[in-house]
Every structure is written in structure tokens, then in C-alpha cells.
Specification:
Two copies of one chain form a homodimer. By secondary structure, the first copy, chain A, is of the alpha+beta class. Chain A has eleven helices and nine strands. In chain A, the strands form four sheets. A three-stranded antiparallel β-sheet of chain A has the order 6-8-7. A two-stranded antiparallel ribbon of chain A has the order 1-9.
């Protein structure tokens, strides 16, 4: 389901819907309430898909076209597993989880991104995500108080970027400017979106994400179907299982203190894997 | 007009509408576009009111009930002028502007809030807004690099709070816990909302704002009417003129680097005064 400031809640263990034909979603608005008075409302578009990618229930407009943004990260991390790069460079499970992260820039995130780069034999200067202070106010404070300054390694997407650099090196591609649409790394990412969505490349609007790499838009029902199929593949022990296991066993690495993805997976254990994206996905 | 991530654009000089009966607003959605593809949409509710507070045009639902949040600050600063407190303590025009600010915590803002408190003979520890790092990343960096830590004085509402403390002292009230709903300062603020909105107190939902003081909800058309009347009063040289002059002549003090209010007033000069509020007001 996608909420405006939202979540991808993807049950990857089989879920018994009470009655698929009668499943109803009843939330249509998210209300922001202050002192008992509704302050603002956000419309919800949501789709539930079954393991075959068929829509089971929807509210709002299930054909709403929007970008995956960071919710695509579990799909984008999959080539690291399938191409044997994560294994070859000896990524830990926590490091694979970090490749799927929108993180707070806390020590385990920054150390993890550095470790991924070191294992791939890559220099931090290859990173093409922008420099910003750690999202975590505590981590930002520590960095600045110790005389440091915001770096690309602190970017909330640095794990994904480090993983993309490792993918390039692991597959023998020049990692320089791995973020450009024409680079083999980004071409590989397009293939993942095509694979899970079942859409043709020319049907998938692409743009530049906030962190500089290519991002992908599909209708919401297609997005739900992609993640349902991915979850089913994980359930059947395919390579996606490694990504899902990494995320659900290392929720902190997927976000950090106070992040929704982290909090949900810490509570839900291995029953749910979650990745939110910007702009309410 | 109120936009979701929005503005109060209040023309305080008389505006000649081309034809009041035919004025039409044509924006109904704000679209967030990424690479030519619409990523998300925000509905717009907007009301234009004339100097008598009559609605001239509207889109969406003009009766939408929402909180003023920080957009109320120009109304909340008015008692400092009307009660003679700003004059008695010798506030500069820039300091009066700061009382209306949602600021970035840059040096002029922090120095201004300290100056207001000093002129009123008040200690910084009286502030009841929460401590947070300056919104400005540069200012936050400087603070922490110099061994400082986030204080209440850096809160984006510290100018308003310093003004409220000064109001209490100037009127002979105990300034301690000036933020509580039952304190004479907050009772005085309620009177301003009643005065400009024309609503009865029991019709105005109240809650606690993010910075700890009372905030007020009215329908959007009433909010527009309040600001239109306030603008008209300023235009006629009433006390509101001092607040409007302070804001339009010191736009930096109302926000700071990169803030919408500051940017608009720097461009518009004295033709428009602007104050946005949280949650899209």
C-alpha cells in the first residue's frame, strides 16, 4: 500500500486474505489532527496485489502514475546478488541492507558505505550523490562538533550509490559517472524495473532522482504488482530472498533512528518488508 | 491565497481587481513535476478577500477549516505596537519584524531575539519554545563547530516568543510560562484573532502549536478576511502599519536565506506582505 507520506508495506510471506473478492480498503484520506481539529488532509491511492501481481483491492485511483523514488532500492540492489557481486566482495548482510537504505547518516550507515566501497576497491570520491549533513540531528552534531563537514558519504542514499559503484567494478565496467542514464549500471537498473513491472521500457517515464541517479515511474497498480512478484520470488527462495532477508534482519541499516521502515520491520520481524520513497510513496 | 506548501500573499496596498464580479482563480492543483512527469498533486483551497473582508474569488472549498499556525504572527505581534511596548523598550523595526518571523536561526535572528529579551530585561531561560538547531545548515554548522549546542534562542519562533515575554513584562504580567493558554499573553492573542476574524471565541478551535503556544483555526475565507482587514488597517495608518512596514522593510528578519516570505518581500518591496504557516498555509 502506498500512503501519501507513506509506506510500501509488502507482505513477503504468504498472506491469507479473508476473502479476496470482498477485500475492501476503507481509508481514503489521511488526516493531520491538531488538538482534535483536522488541520490538513492527504488523499490516499493504494493498491493491494496478490503474489501473481493481480490487484486484489484498491482505493483512490489505482492507475495513478508516480515515481518509485527510493522504494525502488530493493529492486536496484538485486543485481548485486544475482550477478554474484555481493558474494565476491564479501558484503555482509547488513551491508546489503544498506544498499536498500534511505538512512539517517548514523555511524553504522556511514561506516557501512565506506566498507562497501573499500571491499570493492573504490574511492569515496567516486560517489555521485550530493553532500548533505546526516539527517540524524545527533549524528550531524557529532560530525560538526568534531570538525567534520557534510560529505557524499552522509547522503541518505550513499549505500545505494556505493552498491552501484561495487556493481560496476564487479562486472568490469568503469565506475566513473555510474549515475548517468547511459552508464551500464543504470541500464541494468532499467532492466530490473522492466522485469518486475512487465512494462516495456518506452512505457516507463524516467527522470533524475534527488540523489542523481535514474528514477522510474509506473502506475501504482503496476508498482504494487512489481513488489508482490518480488515478494513471491523471495518467498520461493530466489535471489530476492537475500535482499529481503538482509532488510528484515537489519532494519536499522535500512533507515535508522526514527525511520518508518526501520520501526515497522523491527516490530514485524520477517513478516513484512518495507521501503518508503519520497513524495509520499 | 493559501497554497499547500504555501503562502499568505496579502496585498496591503489597494489592489484594483480587473472586475470583481468576474475575477477567477484557475489554479486548482499544484503539481510536482519530475523530468516532465507529474509525481504528485496537492489540492489548493484559496480565497481572495477585499479590504472589507468580503470574498472576491475562491477555489477549492473556501470554508476549509485549518490553523493559522505561523501565519498568525503578524496578528500576534500587533499588541506590542498597540500597547506601546515596542516603543517603550525601544525595539528596532528589524526586531519588530523578527517578532513575526519563522526564521532560519542565522546570526541576525539570534542576535535580534537576544536583543529583544535584553531590552525587556528578560533572561533567555524564560523562553518556552523548544531547542533545535538553526534551520540554516550553515548557521547550524557554525554553531556546532564553535562548540555551541542547539538552544531555544535558535528555535525558528524565538522572535515571537521573545516578543511575548516582552509584552508580558511591558504590561506588568509575570512572564513565567507566558505560553500557557490561561496566561494573560495568550488571552491577549485570542482577542486579536477574535478582533480580525469577527468570530466568537467559542467558534475558534484552539490547539498547541509546534513551538508550544496557542494556535487558532478558522475557515479559510475568515482567515483571508482577517488578513484583508489587517492590510486595510495598515493602509489607513493604524497600528498594523508598523508591523507591515517592519516586515516589508526587513524581509530577511521575517525568514532568512532561502525562505519564501523573505524572497517574495525582497522582490515585491512594500507592495505585498507575506507570512506562511506550517501544514501548507
Amino acid at each position: 500500500m502506498a500512503y501519501p507520506r507513506g509506506y510500501f508495506l509488502v507482505p513477503w510471506k504468504s498472506v491469507d486474505f479473508p476473502d479476496e473478492d470482498s477485500l475492501e480498503l476503507s481509508v481514503s484520506d489521511v488526516e493531520v489532527v491538531r488538538g482534535g481539529t483536522v488541520e490538513s488532509r492527504h488523499r490516499v491511492h493504494a493498491v493491494v496485489a496478490d503474489a501473481d501481481g493481480r490487484p486484489v483491492a484498491a482505493i483512490g485511483d489505482p492507475k495513478t502514475l508516480t515515481f518509485h523514488r527510493s522504494a525502488a532500492k530493493p529492486l536496484q540492489a538485486l543485481p548485486l546478488v544475482e550477478e554474484g557481486v555481493a558474494e565476491r566482495f564479501g558484503f555482509s548482510q547488513a551491508e546489503l541492507a544498506l544498499c536498500c537504505a534511505s538512512h539517517e547518516g548514523e555511524a553504522p550507515h556511514v561506516d557501512g558505505a565506506r566498507s562497501i566501497l573499500a571491499k570493492a576497491g573504490a574511492d569515496e570520491s567516486l560517489l555521485r550523490c550530493g553532500a548533505h549533513l546526516p539527517y540524524s540531528e545527533a549524528a550531524a552534531g557529532e560530525l560538526l562538533a568534531s570538525g567534520g563537514s557534510p560529505g557524499r558519504i552522509h547522503n541518505n542514499c550513499s549505500g545505494k550509490h556505493a552498491g552501484m559503484i561495487a556493481l560496476a567494478i564487479g562486472l568490469g565496467w568503469d565506475p566513473v559517472d555510474y549515475h548517468r542514464a547511459e552508464h551500464p549500471v543504470q541500464r541494468r537498473m532499467v532492466r530490473e524495473i522492466i522485469r518486475w513491472s512487465g512494462m516495456a521500457e518506452e512505457e516507463i517515464p524516467m527522470a533524475v532522482d534527488g540523489c542523481g541517479v535514474v528514477c522510474f515511474a509506473t502506475p501504482l497498480d503496476v508498482m504494487a504488482a512489481s513488489f508482490a512478484r518480488y515478494s513471491a520470488a523471495a518467498d520461493e527462495g530466489e535471489a530476492a530472498a537475500d535482499v529481503v532477508a538482509a532488510m528484515t534482519r537489519h532494519p536499522f541499516m535500512v533507515g535508522g533512528t526514527g525511520r518508518t521502515c526501520t520501526d515497522v520491520m523491527e516490530v514485524a520481524g520477517d513478516r513484512v518488508f518495507v521501503k518508503l520513497g519520497a513524495e509520499g510513496v
